[in-house]
Amino acid sequence: MLVCPQCQFENPNNHRFCQRCGTSLTHKPCHECGTTVPLSAENCPNCGAFTGTVWLAILVQGQIEQQKSGEYLDLGRRYRLIESNSSALTETVDSNPSRQVLRGEVIDCQPLQKSVLGILLEQQAELLENSEDSQATNTSLWQKIGIPELAQPYLELQEKFASIPVVHDAWQEDKKEVILIEDRSNWQLLTDWWKDKQASVVDIIAGLKEMASLWDSFAKAGLSKSLLIEDNLRVDGKHRLALKQLYQNSSDAPTLQD
Ligand SMILES: [Zn+2]
Ligand SMILES: [Zn+2]
Question: Which of 62, 68, 89, 231 makes a 20 to 30 Å CA pair with 200?
């Protein structure tokens, strides 16, 4: 299914234009110079502007496995790893000997394609409607339909806190779990914003209040590390607190063997 970027109509995969409104499903205009660019392209061929759709990928694997830039993260060859610094994926601080956690940026080569996670969540909504079991919880349903454990804290908390990034896609295969979230790597650091002369006392207090309410939920869910890493604390365009990702506290982090 290709979801029209203009009217959200769901078109069959072989369509080049939206059946309802006629918008192109293969190309878009470059935001810098207006040249028509394929949706899968990283850069505009005319002016060189970056036109790709980028996600931040987080990947947990039980065994160490090297992944290089240019490779695809998924079997469907939709998400291609892009190189930042020297390698496509770098280890994050919540790695431990039994559970390697890696992070890197990917280009979405089929940005209008519905995500695996989107399809799973629709199934969940149907299951909930038809379920006779009124006790069915989100977590038990997520397990049943195969939503990776890595995605669950995001799904659980993102409705409550706007500062948590939305999960775009998630899947699991063998001993590997992958999630893709909004890439906030280039958003301003909270500490830089606070040092900035424009930050008012009101802004700073609002940020601290948001952190205090996150701390409560995070302490219960074993995610408090997310608030203790300076690089993880960012601000959005309106200078509200935004987390780059969630980190599991190492002591109670679940392993893939659990
Ligand atoms: Zn349309
Ligand atoms: Zn251009």
Answer: 231
